Amino acid sequence: MKTSALVVAVLVLSGADPLGPRLASAQTTYDRGQDISPTYDGWEQNADGTYSLYFGYFNRNADEEVDVPVGANNTFDGGVADRGQPTHFYPNRKWWVFKVVVPANWPKEQRVVWTLITRGKTNQAKGWLQPEWELSKDVIVENMEGGIPDPDNKPPTITIDSVEAITFPSTATLTASATDDGLPKPYRRNSSNAARNAQPRRPQGVQIKWIQYRGPGKVTFDPDASAVVHGEPIKLTSKASFSAPGTYVLRAIANDGQLYTARDVTVTVNPSTSAQNQR
Predict the structure, then answer these.
(1) pTM, whole model, 2 decimals?
(2) What b/e readout covers 116-153, taking b as 16+ CB neighbours within 10 angstroms?
(3) Do 192 and 101 belong together in one domain?
């Protein structure tokens, strides 16, 4: 079992899923059969002087989840093909899915290029330190519909219990716990203030959600999300079932309606004894 964490101290989308924003306009949609485009979603400078380049993607399918293993069809340039990118792609547009950290002396014009080949189409996202792409809360708000940011809000903390290797087709037990600072405070509608009423309603606290990030098969979570809890710790225990043996990366996301923290856990699903004996 191996865990890693990704803290994204930016506004997230309305609702509890930081991977599911609105589409910018109404267009013809297709349930299946479409390609996926990687996206470059901006950069920020870290406290140690390094830079984080954020990437997401647009799966043009409205329903189909697509898997693209790291390799020739899912790769970064520069001699390091694996930069922590996802291999399991959920439908529609997903923002700030992962980051690539580059040194403090990274040339301002040097590109970091992510290439995805799906449905016979080659698409690329090119990230660099263009000043206009520096992330700010105002920029995030325009894309996320997260309401007015609370300047004192801190992202939730999240931990994941150890997950032992399992043998297919057994299920894995996943337990994630989160705490939060209680911000943003629950939004309360005021009928005398028309401008405030026009704002989207904030979630009433923190929610934990599981998603599949990598793996050779499909993962089903039961349940995949917790209730929304405000002002107290929250725990989500789920059963994960796998369609095939292999190594999977699962991601738990704690979201308070504006900020979120994601933590990854690697789960090994060994082949069944009968399958091994047939080899």
Answers:
(1) 0.85
(2) bbbeeeebebebbbeeebebebebbbebbebbebbeeb
(3) no
